[in-house]
Amino acid sequence: MKQNKHDRILLAHGGGGKLSDELIRKYILPRFKNPALEKLPDAATLNLDSNTLAFTTDSYVVKPLFFNGGDIGKLAVCGTINDLAVAGAKPVALSLSLIIEEGLEFSVLERILDSIARAADDNDVAIVTGDTKTVEAGAAEKIFINTAGIGTRIEGVTLGFDKIAPGDKIILSGTIGDHGMTVISQRKDIRFQTQLKSDCAALASLTGELLDKTAGVKFMRDPTRGGLAATLNEISKQTRLTVQISEADIPVNPTVRAAADMLGFDVLNIANEGKFVAVVSPDCADDCLNICRNHPLGKQAALIGQITETTDLPLVEMATKIGGKRIVQMPYGRELPRIC
Amino acid sequence: MLERIYKAQQLMDAACKTLGRQINIMEVCGTHTVAIFRNGIRTTLPKAIKLLSGPGCPVCVTDQGYIDIVLDLAQRDDCIIATYGDMIRVPGSNGSLETKRSAADVRVMLSSTDALQLAKDNPDKTVVFVAVGFETTAPATAVVIKEAAEEKRENFCILSGHKLVVPAMRALLAEKNDKIDAFLCPGHVSVIIGYGAFNEIVNDFSRPCVVAGFEPMQIIEGLAEICRQLSQGKAELKSIYTAAVTEEGNTTAQQLIAECFEPADGCWRGLGRIKKSTLKLKDKFSRFDALKRFNITETPVEDTTGCRCGEVLCGLIDPPQCALFGSACVPETPVGPCMVSSEGACAAWFKYGRKKQR
Ligand code: SF4
C-alpha cells in the first residue's frame, strides 16, 4: 500500500531539509505564536524583569502517551513549570525539544502539540525556542520530549533545605498517587482504570500565591518519581533531621488506594504530577493551608507532619492509622507488582 | 475503628497476662507480612506477642536448584524466559535473571496469559514460563496449560515451581519449629482452598488457625482471636475473612488445579524436601513440562552465600540476626530471596522496621 507521506513522520522530517521546514512551519509554529519564536532565530532573546533567574530542564518519557487526565505534552509543560514553581520562581519561558520516532502518526503529534500549546497558554508561559529530531523506528518510544524552563525569582523569596528547622510543619497540597496509579493501571489494563485520573497540573499559580501572601515557606518540592516517600527522605537526608508524618492525615483517593493495594504498591512511593510538599514555619502553617485550600489545585491540602530533632539516625517516621509506627524508606528503583 | 483496636488490644493484653509467657504467632503469607509492617502493627502489640514470618512468599520459598535451572535455560538461544517480576532479581548460584538479562531474553509478565501470548508472538522460540506461587497462581497456570494443549502450542512450556501451603505448615511444625503456637492463615490462598483446608493443622497439631484478610483491622482482630483461644487453652479453626473466604473455597479453581497438576514431593528453601508439597504437571500435559522438554534433572544445590533465608522462613531467626542483613544484603543488592521480594520478610524488616545501621 502506498502511504501518504503526510500521514506519518518520516526520518526525513528530521533531516534539516524541506520536510523539516514543513514540519516546523506547518505544525509547530502556528501553535506557539510569540515574537521570540516567530523569526526562528538560533537562540531566543528574552527581556526579563529580574536578574535572579531559575533555570531547569527535564525529559519526558511516558507510556501510554495519552492517559486519563493528561498526556505527554501536558506533562512536559507542567512538569517543567512545577520545577520552577517549587524553586520559588515565576515561570516565564520554555524550550521544547521533540525526539520523534519514525512512523508516528501526524494526528498523534498534533494532539500532543495542541496539548502543549494549551498548557503553555493556560499558564502564561511562552515556548520560545525548540528543536525537532527524528529517529529510526524502534529507537524511541513514539516520542520523547525535553523542555527547559526559565523563571524569574519571586522577590524576597529564598527557599532551601538549609532554611528548615525543627518544629517546622509539612504541608501536602493534595492527594497522592493519582498520576502513577493512573499510568500503571492503564498500562496494565486494570479494571478500575477508568476511575483513576492523573493529577497532572501546573502549580505555579498556587505556589506563587503562597509565596506572595506568606513569608513562612522554607522549602518546596514536587513529589514526582519516588513519590512522597522520596521527597520526605530527601528532606531528612539533607537536613539531618527527622520527618514525622501521620498516615491518617495524608489524603489518598480511595480508588488509588484500592489499585495500589491490588498491585502491592505503597502509595507513598507512587509518582505525582500536580502536587507539592511545602515545609513551613509553624506560625504560618494555618495560613498556608488556607491559601492552598482556597485554590482549585489545593482543595485537599493537608498538614501531614513536622520536622523534629533527633540524636539518632535521621529518618522519616510515620504514625500509622491504627496507632502504630513505621519507617518510610527511600524507595529503591522500580516497584514490582507482587505475585499473588 | 479505634474502639475495635482498643478492644482487640485489651484481649491480647489479658491473654498475655494469663499465659505469662511469650506467644509465637506465625503469619504464613507474605502479603500479611507486608501489611503488618506497613501498618506498624508490631509496634502496637504487647511485648509478649512475637510475630514470625512464615514460608508464604512464593519467591522466598523457591530453592536454589530451581533458580539455577531457570538461569541455565536463560542461557539458551532458543528460549525466552517469561517470569513474574520479583523472580528476576533472585540471585542463583551464579548471577540473577536481571544480571543475565542483556545476554538472555527475559520478559517480565503480569499474568500467565501474557506468557502464552508471548509464545504465540514468537513461534520460532520456546517460551518457558517460570510458574511460581501457591494455590493462588496455580489455577492461572492451569488455564494456560489447557489452552496451550488445545491450540497445540508446542513452543510453550512451564517450569513448575508451584507449591502447596498446608504441607509446608505440617513440615514446619513436625520438623523445624515446634515453638509456633498458632497460625495467622493466608487470605488469598484461603480464598482458593477454603478455610476447611487448615482443619488438619488444628486437629493433628492442636494449633489455632485463624484466616484473616489484609486490612489492618482484620489482622489485629485475627491476632486477638488467636490470643483468646490460646489463653483459654483451645485450638480452633476460624475465619474472620468472611467477605472472601468460604469453608470449601473456590471449587472451580481447585478443579482446574486438579485437572492439570498432581501433588509431588519437592524442595523448599529452608524446609528441604517435603512430601506431596509441590505441583507437578500430570502425565497428559507432560510435554509442557520444561524439565522433560529440556531433559533436566533437579539436583539439590547448597546455598553458599551465607544467607539465612531458610531459618527466617521457618521463624527460627528474625532477619536482623543474619550477619548480612543491612550490610552486604540490602534491597539494591540482595543476597537472598527474602530481601528481593517485596513480600519477603527481610525486605519488610529493612524497609519498614528500624534498620540495623550500616
Ligand atoms: S538478610 Fe539477606 S542474606 Fe540474610 S537471610 Fe535475609 S535475604 Fe538472606
In short, what is this structure?
By secondary structure, chain A is of the alpha+beta class. Helix content of chain A is 29%, strand content 23%.
Word description of this protein:
The complex is a heterodimer of chains A (about 350) and B (about 350). Chain A is an alpha+beta fold and about 350 residues long. Chain A folds into 2 domains: about 5-155, 60s Ribosomal Protein L30, Chain: A; about 160-325, Alpha-Beta Complex (Phosphoribosyl-aminoimidazole Synthetase, Chain A, domain 2), CATH 3.90.650.10. Helix content of chain A is about 30%, strand content about 25%. Chain A has helices spanning about 20-30, 35-40, 70-85, 105-120, 180-190, 205-215, 225-240, 255-265, 285-295, and strands at about 55-60, 65, 70, 90-100, 125-135, 145-155, 170, 215-220, 240-245, 275-280, 300-310, 315-320, 325. In chain A, the strands form 3 sheets. A 7-stranded mixed beta sheet of chain A has the order 8-10-7-11-9-12-13. Chain A has a 4-stranded mixed beta sheet with strand order 1-6-4-5. A two-stranded antiparallel ribbon of chain A has the order 2-3. In chain A, a hairpin with a 2-residue loop joins strand 2 (about 65) and strand 3 (about 70). In chain A, helix 3 (about 70-85) packs parallel to helix 4. Chain A is globular. Chain A starts with 17 loop residues before the first helix and ends in a 13-residue tail after the last strand. Chain B is α/β, with parallel strands linked by helices and about 350 residues long. Chain B folds into 2 domains: about 1-305, Rossmann fold (3-Layer(aba) Sandwich); about 310-355, no CATH class. Chain B is built from 16 helices and 11 strands. Chain B has helices at about 1-20, 30-40, 60, 65-75, 95-100, 110-120, 140-150, 165-175, 185-195, 200-205, 215-230, 250-260, 290-295, 310-315, 335-340, 345-350; strands at about 25, 50-55, 80-85, 105-110, 125-135, 155-160, 180-185, 210, 235-240, 260-270, 270-280. Chain B has a 5-stranded parallel beta sheet. A 4-stranded parallel beta sheet of chain B has the order 4-3-5-6, with helices on both faces. A two-stranded antiparallel sheet of chain B has the order 10-11. Classes of the chains: A alpha+beta (about 350), B alpha/beta (about 350). The interface of A and B includes residues 325, 326 and 337 of A.
